DNA sequence: CAAAATCAAGCAAAGTCGTGCAAATATGTT
DNA sequence: AACATATTTGCACGACTTTGCTTGATTTTG
């Protein structure tokens, strides 16, 4: 396993779980605890996390007096968040008044919800309780929740009950969340159940739009959802290079930067 | 569990409940009381809380000696929080390993969830996305969400879809939330749709337990769910007087104070 | 006052950390 | 291709931290 890849995954895990336990990761990835500790040391040096005995915590949660490293870090976080937020803003503009849309789980789609205007009148169907809670604030949006067994890693419902409920709806647009976008492999996700749900959702949607932040581009996860050209649009970061974009266009995928 | 993680949770719990009881946290997190006491000692050293015999209090409460009126007000708020938390604790103890329970929406039931031990293995069915999100932290609890149209005022799903999903389940215990408890009127709530859902849930549950904080007692809301004696138990505040309790017992209602 | 609960201090076991070192693997140069 | 240089990784070692337990003091409660 590559060092940079590991560091990347550490930060991702920190975002997802709010904490890092060195021993857990060493077991999970079959490397020594020393290696994880070294990674944590270096990431802490860059101000990307806070080391604690046994692992690490996000710097935001850490209650430390402002250190010189903190300024640097906050700027960097803002930057990464900013491009995700841009993506969310662009996606939010695609929802027109009166439409019925399905919003998938995931942090990128959470950004979409954050950017929805409070006055928007629309119907949002979701299988993510997190998204549903975020939409309570919007008085004009009718929210419908797809029930089922809660898959905790992604915080969305899955299983037969969810599939059954999905089969009884039709939506204008489906905002699909993915963990991997790859020109040859296609769109992919980390859980088999989820991949079935995503295909079912695509089948009942007139349009499917994928929101993929830069870190998802040119990566693949275990379970393939469909090919890139099978969705109506892939929305990604402005930071992605021209040649990368072209590799997707060669596959006739409709990929757009914002 | 990481030390720093635990300290953050202590401060969070202090904000939520207005007080810390060392023994309770040691039971809930399955660490020795010494460990909790050590954490409290160190947090007190940093001035983040005020140690008291048996646990800790927020520093703000202690500092308010200056304005007598404010002490009273803040103290009352803290007290109200504390008694709600007590109710949650008592209810949490009623859930036994392996059981299948339905947890209704509402702040009192949210307190129940906060007090569930992390190691509890059980199945929780809910129609509240808020409750579902709170349970993501619990690794051993299987969460099932009842889908439907989201009723925003209470943040629970309602409607035909929800009723249909409810008709297909059976639970050991239903923790019902209400907005009114009255000896003559019975149990009531503020929304018609919700009252139907609550009756349906009661019908599929072997036991129904009502959690009612002091402010609900002897009040009535527009939509009646059922009579007080039709549920297996009504759990309420220790602050309720004996004569009030007796007025319910005369109706053969099983009301208990904690 | 006396029983019960809570507390602090000290101790030992287990867990975690940093440093130095050597083997394995990449990278660059001749 | 052969060699030198740099990076990465796992291991060993001693130092440090955390934790639960014991003991005896202190506080609370009836």
Describe the fold and architecture.
- 2 copies of one chain form a homodimer.
- By secondary structure, chain A is α/β, with parallel strands linked by helices.
- Chain A has 2 domains: 3-57, Arc Repressor Mutant, subunit A; 80-257, Rossmann fold.
- In chain A, 40% of the residues lie in helices and 24% in strands.
- Chain A has 9 helices and 15 strands.
- The first copy, chain A, has a 7-stranded parallel β-sheet, with helices on both faces. A 3-stranded antiparallel β-sheet of chain A has the order 1-3-2.
- In chain A, helix 4 packs across helix 5 and helix 7 (160-167) runs parallel beside helix 8.
- Chain A is globular.
- Residues 61-79 of chain A have low confidence and may be disordered.
- Chains A and B meet through helix 6, strand 6, strand 7 and helix 7 of A and helix 1, helix 7, strand 6, strand 7 and helix 8 of B.
- Chain A binds a DNA duplex (30 and 30 nucleotides) through helix 3.
């Amino acid at each position: 396993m590559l060092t940079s890849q590991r560091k990347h995954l550490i930060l991702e895990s920190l975002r997802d779980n709010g904490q890092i336990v060195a021993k857990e990761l060493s077991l999970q990835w079959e490397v020594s605890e020393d290696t994880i500790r070294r990674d944590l040391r270096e990431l802490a040096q860059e101000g990307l996390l806070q080391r604690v005995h046994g692992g690490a915590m996000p710097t935001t949660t850490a209650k430390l007096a402002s250190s010189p490293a903190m300024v640097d870090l906050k700027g960097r976080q803002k930057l990464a968040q900013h491009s995700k937020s841009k993506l969310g803003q662009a996606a939010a503009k695609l929802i027109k008044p009166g439409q019925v849309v399905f919003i998938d789980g995931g942090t990128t789609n959470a950004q979409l919800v954050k950017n929805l205007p409070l006055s928007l009148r629309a119907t949002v169907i979701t299988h993510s309780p997190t998204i549903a809670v975020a939409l309570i604030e919007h008085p004009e949006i009718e929210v419908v929740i797809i029930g089922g067994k809660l898959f905790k890693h992604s915080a969305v419902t899955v299983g037969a009950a969810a599939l059954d409920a999905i089969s009884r709806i039709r939506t204008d647009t489906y905002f699909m969340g993915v963990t991997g976008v790859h020109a040859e492999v296609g769109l992919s996700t980390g859980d088999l159940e989820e991949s079935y749900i995503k295909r079912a959702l695509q089948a009942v949607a007139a349009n499917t739009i994928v929101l993929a932040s830069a870190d998802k581009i040119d990566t693949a996860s275990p379970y393939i959802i469909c090919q890139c050209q099978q969705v109506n649009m892939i929305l990604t970061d402005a930071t992605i290079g021209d040649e990368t974009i072209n590799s997707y266009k060669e596959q006739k995928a409709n990929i757009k930067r914002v």
